Amino acid sequence: MSGPQDVHAKAIQQLWDREIQTAKEIQKRTGILRSTVYYNISKLKKLVVLVTEIVVVAPEKSLPEAS
Q: How far is the C-alpha of 2 from the C-alpha of 61, rounded, in Å?
């Protein structure tokens, strides 16, 4: 069972993935409070940074050292 926060987060993420990335436009399309939109956008941005860091750093760590 998911609460309204989960539903809002999923709706915002779907729009974000479709390149609709302004709080005003997301709020206009969904009716979700703009403060909630801003909160979820900040979480998405942090996730993007984290995933980018993992992708950049992880391959270097997993490569065997040349002798």
A: 37
* CA–CA distance, 67 with 59 (Å, rounded to integer): 18
**Residue pointed to by tokens 């984290």:** 50
Q: How far apart are the first and last CA of the chain?
A: 54
pLDDT one digit per residue (tens) for the chain, 67 residues: 467 778 888 888 888 888 888 899 999 999 999 999 999 988 888 887 766 666 665 555 555 565 5
H or E element in which residue 40 lies: helix 34-62
Q: Where are the domains of the chain?
A: 4-62
